[in-house]
User: Fold this.
Amino acid sequence: MLNLLKHPLLTHKLTLLRRKETNTKDFRETLEEIAGLMAFEITRDLPLKNVTVETPVGICSTQELARDVVLIPVLRAGLGMVNGISNLIPSARVGHIGMYRDHDTLEPNTYYSKFPDNLPDAVVMVLDPMLATGGSASAAISFLKENGAKTIKLVCVVGAPEGVERIRKDHPDVQIYLAGLDEKLNDNGYIVPGLGDAGDRLFGTK
Ligand code: PRP
Ligand code: URA
Assistant:
């Protein structure tokens, strides 16, 4: 299911991310802030468990998170979303999956992975700012499922209809979160209007 998040601050910051004059420092800071703002919505359905704590004044029956959260940034660009979310969920463990899209075939290639051992029990959030053809995200999710992940949320910033459709078809159990749903893909598989190459803009490699 697609969750298109709407908030004036998200819209404002996404505009800054899209603007081609935005430099690497501002891009990095803004992507982190967007991820932090998205965290509020993507965690809305996290289950709670009852606990009792002692305050300086008395006993309080309250609640805390019942399930572990694991963040899986898709390298490279997903790295730019980790801090924004882990600042709010400091207990979250972080795994990594390295994936690049072949420039000619647009097919994803996996070159690295390292996951924490609590994947099967955790709420797993796959982080990647761009959902273009959906090939990378779909392959990352399949790989995580093969490694035991059961509850998976896909957290992207900008998506194309083609990518959303691909995830819906390949992984109907996965919730998709976006801050912007754009018009289409161009012939090179870039999101239009999008924001360009997220990895290059984040790390200043172009
Ligand atoms: C980008 C982006 C996604 C992927 C999206 O990564 O960060 O991972 O492309 O495209 P898709 O939906 O068509 O698969 P890229 O392959 O450019 O790697 P990079 O982050 O290392 O630059
Ligand atoms: N990857 C990006 O970084 N940008 C796009 O528009 C598509 C894929």
